[in-house]
């Protein structure tokens, strides 16, 4: 039976392993993938495969997000309990978890990148395709008045991140948003785009470039994983360095490479004048 767009989207969102994903991302992936498979069942499979690759593969062990949210809420006001909880929760996201063995190196490097001048801390940060990265907040030393706005397509992650921001008393919000189809608008001091470019470009080549072009930020941190999820190295550093160079060509940023274990990382500083004050 030939596939209609609406039927494929409906079938994917009805599946247990996919119903937590942004309907906008499911619709966008269906637009791209369904026309390549004339039969309904094949179209659904193609869409699921792509969604697994760009999102589900990272959170295979996130079984009880509601329990996590309850535990976070119960720890509100107890910074030590929230720190302990955030470490155990971060192990639920493969990509975020990769940083944990090196947290003593990662945290100072991120602090320097996020807040180069302690006297002028950022007022708004946008974390695009955040995973559980915002759970590192207790180590970053940001003022809790700094708006930390986090976006991901996985509503289970966003539920956890939102509860965490609230319990930690951090300004800002967590939003389910397909940042590739609906780029984040508004000004900010800093955009964080960690290990997200391959996911964006897997849906549609050139997508990450459009996301970068839409940014209105003074600084961005952009990283690539230099190991695959399975642990293989496969020359990823050299490949992603070339991707990075092509990605920022002609954009108004100057790039500085940063040492971050397991990641190829750059800071981008705007060269054509800072955007107006953050929203
Ligand atoms: C490789 S992980 C990186 C997570 C996090 N930035 C980190 O470094 O720990 C990619 C994340 O991007 C999210 N994602 C993939 N495509 C997205 C999109 N179009 N919009 C928003 N989030 C997306 C996935 O759900 C996943 O959590």
Could you walk me through the main structural features you see in this protein, from its secondary elements to its overall organization?
The chain is α/β, with parallel strands linked by helices. It folds into 2 domains: 5-54, Helicase, Ruva Protein, domain 3; 65-270, Vaccinia Virus protein VP39 (Rossmann fold, 3-Layer(aba) Sandwich). The chain is 43% helix and 17% strand. It contains 12 helices and 7 strands. The protein has helices at 5-14, 23-33, 40-54, 65-74, 79-90, 94-97, 103-114, 137-140, 155-168, 197-203, 207-214, 236-248, and strands spanning 124-128, 147-152, 174-176, 187-194, 216-225, 253-260, 263-270. The chain has a 7-stranded mixed beta sheet with strand order 3-2-1-4-5-7-6, sandwiched between helices. Strand 6 (253-260) and strand 7 (263-270) form a beta hairpin. The chain is globular. The N and C termini lie far apart (48 Å). The protein binds S-adenosylmethionine. The site of S-adenosylmethionine (SAM) has 23 residues, from helix 6, strand 2 and helix 10.
Quick summary:
The chain contains twelve helices and seven strands. With 279 residues, it is an alpha/beta fold. The protein folds into two domains: 5-54, Helicase, Ruva Protein, domain 3; 65-270, Rossmann fold.
């Amino acid at each position: 039976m030939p596939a209609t767009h609406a039927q494929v989207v409906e079938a994917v969102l009805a599946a247990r392993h996919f119903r937590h994903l942004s309907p906008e991302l499911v619709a966008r992936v269906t637009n791209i993938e369904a026309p390549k498979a004339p039969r309904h069942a094949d179209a659904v499979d193609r869409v699921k495969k792509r969604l697994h690759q760009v999102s589900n593969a990272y959170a295979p062990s996130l079984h009880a997000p509601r329990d996590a949210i309850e535990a976070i809420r119960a720890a509100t006001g107890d910074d030590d309990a929230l720190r302990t909880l955030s470490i155990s929760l971060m192990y639920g996201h493969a990509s975020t978890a990769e940083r944990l063995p090196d947290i003593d190196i990662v945290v100072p490097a991120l602090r320097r990148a996020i807040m180069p001048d302690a006297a002028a801390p950022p007022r708004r940060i946008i974390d695009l395709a955040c995973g559980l990265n915002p759970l590192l907040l207790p180590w970053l030393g940001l003022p809790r008045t700094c708006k930390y706005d986090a976006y991901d397509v996985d509503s289970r992650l966003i539920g956890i991140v939102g509860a965490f921001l609230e319990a930690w008393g951090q300004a800002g919000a967590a939003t389910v948003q397909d940042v590739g189809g609906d780029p984040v608008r508004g000004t900010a001091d800093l955009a964080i785009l960690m290990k997200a470019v391959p996911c964006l470009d897997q849906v549609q080549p050139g997508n990450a470039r459009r996301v970068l072009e839409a940014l209105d930020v003074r600084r961005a941190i952009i990283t690539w994983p230099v190991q695959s999820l399975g642990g293989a190295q496969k020359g990823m550093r050299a490949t992603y360095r070339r991707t990075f160079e092509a990605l920022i060509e002609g954009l108004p940023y100057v790039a500085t490479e940063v040492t971050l274990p397991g990641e190829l990382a750059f800071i981008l500083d705007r060269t054509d004048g800072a955007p107006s004050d953050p929203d």
